[in-house]
Design a protein that fits this description.
α2 packs across α3 and α7 (239-248) crosses α8 (252-262). This protein has helices at 23-36, 50-62, 84-98, 145-158, 171-180, 199-207, 239-248, 252-262, 274-281, 290-297, 308-316; strands at residues 3-6, 9-12, 16-17, 40-42, 72-77, 105-108, 164-167, 187-191, 211-215, 266-267. The protein has an 8-stranded parallel beta sheet. A two-stranded antiparallel ribbon has the order 1-2. The protein contains 11 helices and 10 strands.
Amino acid sequence: MQTIAVGQASMPAVGLGLWKIDPNDVTQAVYDAIKVGYRHLDSAADYGNEAEVGAGIARAIGDGLCTREELWITSKLWNTFHRQEHVTAACRKSLDDLGIDYFDLYLVHFPIALRFVDFADRYPPEWIFDPSAAAPRMERDNVALSETWGGMENLVDQGLAREIGVCNYNSGLLHDLMSYARIKPAMLQLESHPYLTQGAMLRTARDYDIAVTAFSPLGAASYLELDMATEQESVLAEPTVTEIAARLNVSAAQVVLKWGLQRGTAVIPKTSKPERLLENLTLAGFELSGDDVAAISALNKNRRFNDPGDFCADAFNTFHAIYD
């Protein structure tokens, strides 16, 4: 299985993304994924399914499919827990839900600090501070990202997370983080696919020896039901991709995922379908040529599907841009 270096460890380069997998389906999906060979699971408190993910992990370990040590489990700190005094509690809550003792990797989910919501009041707290308010909206909290990072570093000191990193950071925030971090980030997780190649961010991360994981590596598919993308925006239907797939006798999805791997990123496609689980993991039997990689990269449109500057105003009555 292909791996990438993450800090002092090696992480499987293909993982299962758990965003938007229904809690009723995710236990079986995790079990099936581990059974066919996945050893990398990408979770988050905000996905609202960590207890069910944990049930799938426990079942797989109980059935002898793997050990905990053979798994790479990632989770993420939600926006409402950015104050340093909340970081450890939030991490422990995810650990308890997943039924594990430590994370291989724990990430700051967004560079967005929102007002704290107690676990007892609502969990996961999502984006809106008070859903019962006359005009429900996001409410920001005045927390420096350096304070949040200090809390993340404490997780490593306590043995709760072996590696730490960030998601959805831009280059300016990454440069700033590297100037003050006592424990340097081992991972940058960002949206990347052929319509959003993120060349400058990948180069910046490499210059700092930070590994990169691409979420939504297949592009629009995860965003159709959220009305954040259209059917016409499927990179899997691009003639460049379908022609390469036909020539290599693989699927369009396999071509796009392989493109991500050959660029040096990990990829975390999401699916709960057993046949897709195996397809997305079966990427070792073929290679893209340099011309193939260049042709797919040339599809770039700088099309970002997951952009708080777009969805926060529409869904949460608060404009909050993090990208220029």
